[in-house]
Amino acid sequence: MNLSYRLLQVSDGARRGCLQTARGPVETPTFMAVGTAATVKAMTPEQVAATGTQVVLGNTYHLMLRPGAEKIKALGGLHDFMNWPGVILTDSGGYQVWSLAARRNVTEEGVSFRSHIDGALHQLTPERAVAIQQDLGSDIMMVLDECTAYPADRATAEASMALSLRWAARCKAALDARKGALFGIVQGGMYADLRGLCARSLQTIGFDGYAIGGLSVGEDQAMMAAMTAATTQCLPVDQPRYLMGVGRPQDIIEAVARGVDLFDCVLPTRCGRTGKAFTWDGELNLRNACHGQNPAPLDPDSDCLASREYSRAYLHHLFKSGEILGPILLTWHNVHFYQDLMRALRQAIEQDRFAAFRAETLDRLQNR
Q1: CA angle at residue 35 from 309 to 301, to 5 degrees?
Q2: What sign results for the dihedral spanned by CA atoms 265, 269, 271, 277?
Q3: Phi/psi at 263 (nearest 5 deg)?
Q4: pLDDT tens digits, residue range 173-217?
Q5: Around 340, how many Cα atoms within 13 Å sit in the side-chain half-sphere?
Q6: What is the pLDDT of residues 27-46, one digit of tens each?
Q7: pTM for this prediction
Q8: Any idea which residues carry the catalytic annotation?
């Protein structure tokens, strides 16, 4: 086994742990930066590492289409290709294929789809999803699953979950355990009992960790929180738990309260490119005129140069002028803020004051 998890502390349901990988430890809870096409957009790998980011995600769907997993393997694997020495988690491509809608066809064998790049026909099976991720040299791989549409009636959710379980078993059978860890993905729509059944069934197959999929697909925050709690209650205490694609700071805090260890989302980088900053006092849109004469930095106490050395007025100017430096600086700030949030969460759990931190921080974040 290439991965192990050690639970160090629990505070009001929140977990402080350490994920031991072949490339070193990952302190949890942690936020993983999304590097869709072998790059965290608008940042160098060195900048990403300097924020305290421990894990970067690669997108199997995009990398298999361009430049191709075989090319990346021939160039030494994804770590060498993108110059990232830390841990890499790769998704299976299932969510991206699911989002193609009219371009895909799901069968028992797998899913066939047409590339959004050139329209070429491709097929992704559980076995191929694992093979591609192993070619990429991923440290943590994800099973191929079907992301259940929202809303979905119970029969549809149950059938989709059952298909994902059959695919998960095939992924496990195809895995060369010497080449990385493999996580199962819990599906089941918005039905707590189906999610519990899926979680228990995945444990029967046996994985290195377990992800919660199919959330943040249109449901409200209360439903997302309820499904997260229903799932974590059925997962092993001594293995990592990963909530896929959920990334608003408030949602991360609430998921940590429900026992989640790992997170990822495109929000910090996507919002950084469009002028939105995440701060301890809520979200700011730097395009708004109110920032045009504000000499204050985003966070004068931050260790991040982008956060403390550039005024809000200057950032406003960059975005209004269409200068590329604006997205670069704001993405840097956002990624650093997310890592500051995770460091603060880990410290609060260590000091057994998570409940107070949760209340205080949610109040500040929702103040705007």
Answers
A1: 20
A2: positive
A3: -140, 155
A4: 999 988 999 999 999 999 999 999 999 999 999 999 999 999 999
A5: 17
A6: 999 999 999 999 999 999 99
A7: 0.97
A8: 91, 264
